[in-house]
Amino acid sequence: MEQALLAVIAAAGKMGISCDELCAHAVGGLVSEQYWTWADAQHAERAADEIDNALAILVGRQAGTPTKRGPDATLESAAN
After folding, report:
1. Among 2, 16, 55, 75, which is least packed by CB within 10 angstroms?
2. Are 10 and 58 in contact (CB under 8 A)?
3. Segments forming the whole domain that contains residue 36
4. How far is it, in rounded angstroms, from Cα 79 to Cα 64?
5. Beta strands per DSSP E along the chain
6. How many domains is the chain partitioned into structurally?
7. Mean pLDDT, consecutive 10-residue segments, the chain of 80 residues?
8. Residue 1, SS3?
């Protein structure tokens, strides 16, 4: 899973899409049931952590650094 996430995040960066914004939207969708009803809530938190860790590996920031989650983080990223 981590390799797939790294590939998607890296491809987005090459396409000019902000990696941070992409990950914020993905995490926001996972933790906000209203966005993606198909997501399994039982695994959403772990999946969100994997997205954060993949981004950390790709951009070289320390894994485990907390990031904002949920709709507010998604809206803040979109505003920037």
Report:
1. 16
2. yes
3. 2-79
4. 25
5. none
6. 1
7. 84 90 88 79 87 85 48 41
8. coil
Say if pTM beats, i.e. exceeds, 0.85.
no
Q: Which residue has the tokens 């993949």?
A: 54
Give the torsion sign (CA, 64, 44, 34, 54): positive
**Whats the size of the chain, residue-wise?**
80
Can you give the C-alpha Rg of the chain in angstroms? 12
The span from the first CA to the last CA of the chain, in angstroms, equals: 29
Pick from 43, 51, 64, 71: nearest CA to 8? 51
Residue appearing with tokens 């320390």: 62
